[in-house]
Each structure stands twice: as structure tokens, then as C-alpha cells.
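Question: Send over one sample?
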Amino acid sequence: MGKETFPDPSDHRRGVGLWLLALAGMVYVMVVLGGLTRLTGSGLSMVEWQPLSMLPPLTDQAWQAAFARYKASPQYQLVNSGMTLAGFKGIFWLEYVHRLWGRLIGLAFLAPFLLFLARRRITRRAAPRLALLFLLGGAQGALGWFMVKSGLVDRPEVSHYRLAAHLVTALVIYGALLWSALDFLSPPREPDRRLRRRLVVVLGLVCLTIPAGALVAGLHAGLIYNTFPLMNGRLLPPEALDMSPLWRNAFDNLALVQFDHRLLAALTWTAAVAFWLWARHRPLTPQGRLAVALVPLVATLQVGLGISTLLLVVPVPLAAAHQAGAFLLFGVVVWALKASIAPNSRGIGPL
């Protein structure tokens, strides 16, 4: 085989990077839509999974058939009994758009990916990684149905474990797309390792806080202990350790699940601010300085959204903004990691 040639970075790498960045943006929108479907109860309106179908009901007969299937679900029988067809359409459309958007992400990935491969704009090193991301996206769709299915059996609530798994998978896909996009958009440079080590701590805390928040959402634990900073006058409610075996409390006890999320959020905010206080004295590029400054700003915004959501007993707009803010904070930290360039850094070769 002949020696592999790479496209001119100034001509081609930017195009691939912008495509991946757009995909990361689409995943971000998908997360926001997913949060809205959960918060509005729309996520259980479609009781079948047809991954190859993209059309909604188009006739009155098709709508009546879809409504009849929904009437057999626990959500209709226990929560929405007596709902009219018009009311059903109201919750159906949001979930339909959510699922359709997922399919559009798949198309927006696959067609340009094959085109870039054919034109040799993606290196042999990057191609398997991106192909794996496409497969993970397909698995995410199946995992989403696995989650929804848990709310169609006995009770109109999805498993909080499956919800957390679904959200974490979205986080992995979003992070990998963003990281890959920045690989193509920024010339490879030697990183500032001291800066990165501290940022990795912040990123790790963010990655723990987000699934902890998913457990809160799945258990509706935000609907209780709606005071701050104490939980109904206590740092930790006495019922937080009531379950047996003891380890179950961390995953199933509403009091401890909410406490854990509060604690992790406080640690994340503290780490973000401490990182900035240290990093602002480092020699940084203009891009790196902006990214570093955004870490504590977005962390503070996210904490404010979380506290407001709790105190106001989870209004839909604030709760959706809080979930969106979590992914925004994650994205800012990832960007800061890529922008942490060592002083007088030189290129380290094509990725």
C-alpha cells in the first residue's frame, strides 16, 4: 500500500470539524427535547418503537388507532384517563419531534461521513472512532426505547436507572463529537499538563453530577425538600438511610439521592471557581483565557438554575434549562481542556 496522504488542513480539516460541531449541536438539542418530553409526560405517548418509520399518523383513522394504543398504557389509565384526542395530539407531537430529531442526527452523520471518507478528508486514525460513534448513536436509540418501555408496563414512570443510562450515553456521544470537532478545528499543540490535570478534576465532578441529577429526575426527588441550603431544616434528613441494604439508599432513597446531587453540585462549583482562581495567573492564549473564564461562570449559572428549580418545585421551563445547562457546562469544560495549550507550544502532528 502506498503512503497515506492527508488533505491540506486549511482546506479540509475545518469542513470536517464544522460538520462534527454541528452534530454536537444537534445532540445538544436532542437532550433539551428529551428533557421536555420527560417533564411534560410526552415521552410515554408513543407506545411503539418503529425505528425505520419517520411519518406521523396522517389520517383520522391512523390517529384513532394511535390513541387507542395509548389508552391501553398505564399513563392514560392512571394519569390521563378521560383525555381527548386533541389532548393526546398535544403530547404526541413533542415525543414525535424528539424521535424524528434522533433519526435526522443519524442521517446528518452518515451521509457526510461517507462523503468525507470517499474524498479522504478523514484520516485512517479518525475514521474508526467516528464509525464507532455512529454505532453508539444507533444503540442510544434502542436504549431510549428500552427506557420508555419501562414506563409502559405497570406504572407510568420510566426506570430511573434506565433514564440515567440514557442520559450518560447522550453525554458520551456529545463529548466525543465535541472533542473530535475541536481536534479538526484546532491545530494539534502540546497541552499545558498542569492546567489539564486540574480541569480533569472539574470534568470528573461534572460527569458524576449529571447522572446524579438523572436519578433525581427519574425519582421525582426534586418535588420534595424544596428548601435551600438545608433540606427542610436539616443538612441530611433522618430518612435518608432508611432502606436496606444500605447501598440502596444512594440510588433509590429520594432523600439521599437529592442530597447526593446537592453535594456533588456544590463540589463541582467549588472546584470550578478554585480552578479559575488558579488558572487566571497562567500564561494562556486568548481562546484559552476565554474558555477558562467561562468554566466558573457557567457553573454559577447552572447552580442558580438548580436552586431556582428546587425552590419553585420544578417548573418545566426552569427544569429544562437546568438540564441544558448541565450539558453546556460539560461542553465548556471540554473546550477548556482542548484550549489548554502550553506556553510556546509547537505542533505535535496531524490527528
Q: What stands out?
A: The longest helix spans residues 85-118. The radius of gyration is 22 Å. The CA atoms of residues 174 and 224 lie 31 Å apart. Residues 1-8 have pLDDT under 50 and may be disordered.
